[in-house]
Amino acid sequence: QVQVVESGGDLVQPGGSLRLSCAASGTISGIVAMAWYRQAPGKQRELVATLFTTGTTNYADTVKGRFAISRGNAKNTVYLQMNSLKPDDTAVYYCNARDARGSPRYVWGQGTQVTVSS
Questions:
Q1: How confident is the model at residue 10 (pLDDT cuts 50, 70, 90)?
Q2: What is the pLDDT of residues 69-113, one digit of tens each?
Q3: What residues pair up with 22 in beta bridges, in sequence order?
Q4: 29, 84, 95, 96: which sits with the fewest CB atoms below 10 Å from its CB?
């Protein structure tokens, strides 16, 4: 099983920026994308950003224009650059790989906490 480790979360003021990192322990066949998800207290986990192996990216409407997903130089690494952060972005952020059906395929990590507050 492939495991992931997320890092980079912090407490930041509204309007600030953070860059999250995700490192996977390996890869498996059938992966078509890497993605970032988030889960706010009392809410379901939601898909935030997707980077397909083709290079195409997709973003949730709530983060479009503010967040950017990218692949790192190190193998099996992906980043999430978050700008113009808002209190509504407060959540635990997770990364995972997706298959062609959109299902997550790696073991979920602990996530990294992002708190946006003044």
A1: very high
A2: 999 887 789 999 999 999 999 999 999 999 999 899 999 999 999
A3: 6, 78
A4: 29
Determine the average pLDDT of the residues in 28-55.
Answer: 94
Single-letter amino acid, residue 31 = I
Two tokens, residue 111: 């996530």
Q: Which of 96, 89, 83, 79 is nearest to 114 (CA)?
A: 89
- The answer to whether 41 and 114 have CB atoms below 8 angstroms apart is no
Interior CA angle at 26 toward 24 and 29, to 5°? 115
* Residue 97 Cα distances to 17, 29, 42, 68, 90, angstroms: 24, 11, 24, 17, 22
**22-34 residue pLDDT tens:** 999 888 888 999 9
* Residue entry with tokens 């073991």: 107
Would you state the structure tokens that stand for residue 89, as one six-digit string? Answer: 């972005």
What's the length of the chain? Answer: 118
User: Percentages helix, strand, coil for the chain, rounded to the nearest 5?
Assistant: 5, 50, 45
